[in-house]
Amino acid sequence: MCISCVMRSRLFWIFAIIYSSLHHIGSGSTSTTLKRPRAGDPFDTFPKNFWQEFSSPFTDTPEDEELEVTETTTHEPFPFFADPYTTVNISTQLSSNVYLHCRVNDLQGKTVSWMRRRGDDLTLITFGQHTYSGDSRYSLEFEEPNDWKLLIQFANERDEGPYECQVSSHPPLVLLVYLTIIVPHVEILDERGSATPEKYYKAGSTIELQCVISKIPHPSSYITWRHGPRLLNYDTSRGGISVKTDMLPGRALSRLYIANANRQDTGNYTCMLGNEITETVVVHVLNGEEPAAMQHANGTRHGARPSNMVVFFLLYVYACVCGMAVAVGHPIGR
């Protein structure tokens, strides 16, 4: 509505008021008594918005104009991983227990699942807090406030590979965890640091064996020594047995000492890390006699000189035969 229109409307009402007043004055001599429209204010007959429009001549407020409404929308929090990465590499040693972590914030009723990926195939392991794998070594442990941990017990080489933690949002969230199984290398050495499958000791001497284990990312098991089925680490029945083990970065060294060896100490000695990582050496304790293996070694060391003599003897015989053949007129080769 324009300002000039408003002004014309105001002027019309002003003229109407003046006209109405003059009309009442002019008709005052008649015998007819004028009736007020209604008791009260003589301006009650005016439109209700008259004074509002009259007092605000420069305000344009159309009745049909709709008020602008600002609409605000609040979205639900979207689930997200608490850790800032979407790919994780985890290493564990053979036969140990390992946790795969999946921390999710603002889950909002969504479900967390663990999957095992083999190529393009996905195998369901857990759904929520329920385990669906037929392998009893797999289980789900939830730790407050947000960690959905997949536990793998006694990990073996078949467990190596990619795993996926999935959140059932739209689109789904996926955390890739690659598990590497490290198989330690075990070797038993003698007191001189030499590796041998068999070792000979004289009665009364001290048996000393060293077990060297490499490729240990996180030592989680004690190194044990066994003589046959008998555990030696805490053996006190025989006496004179001691085990000293040093855990070093990435490897371990364990030494076995058996004082005053006797024939009962003969047998298999096994160094073990856990239940699956083992190495065995055979120990012989002799009462003064020289073992056949040592005799063979001595024969090998002294056998070079007789062998040379045999060669020279054969060459000599060959030369003699050739000389005799030439003398009788029958050269060899014709």
> Which shape, going by the Cα principal axes?
rod-shaped
Number of strands: 20
The fraction of residues assigned to DSSP E strands is 35-45%
The assigned CATH architecture of the domain at 80-182 is: Sandwich
SS-derived structural category: alpha+beta
CATH class of the domain at 80-182: Mainly Beta
- Counted by DSSP, the helix tally is 4
**The CATH homologous superfamily of the domain at 80-182:** Immunoglobulins
- Overall mean pLDDT score? 79
Radius of gyration: 52 Å
Strand order of the largest sheet: 2-11-10-5-6-7
Keywords: Membrane, Receptor, Signal, Transmembrane, Transmembrane helix
Transmembrane segments: 309-328
Domain Ig-like: 84-169, 184-282
InterPro entries: Ig-like_dom (IPR007110), Ig-like_dom_sf (IPR036179), Ig-like_fold (IPR013783), Ig_sub (IPR003599), Ig_sub2 (IPR003598), Ig_V-set (IPR013106), Zig-8 (IPR037448)
Which short descriptors sum up this protein?
single chain; 5-stranded mixed beta sheet; alpha+beta; Immunoglobulin-like; membrane; rod-shaped; 19% helix; 4 helices; Ig_sub; 334 residues; 6-stranded mixed beta sheet
Compact summary:
Helices cover about 20% and strands about 35% of the residues. It has about 325 residues and is an alpha+beta fold. Strand 8 (about 140-145) and strand 9 form a beta hairpin.
Secondary-structure blueprint:
Elements: H1 3-26, H2 50-55, E1 80-81, E2 87-93, E3 98-100, E4 104-105, E5 112-118, E6 121-127, E7 130-131, E8 138-143, E9 147-152, E10 161-167, E11 173-182, E12 185-189, E13 198-202, E14 207-214, E15 223-227, E16 230-231, E17 241-248, E18 251-258, E19 267-273, E20 277-286, H3 292-302, H4 304-327
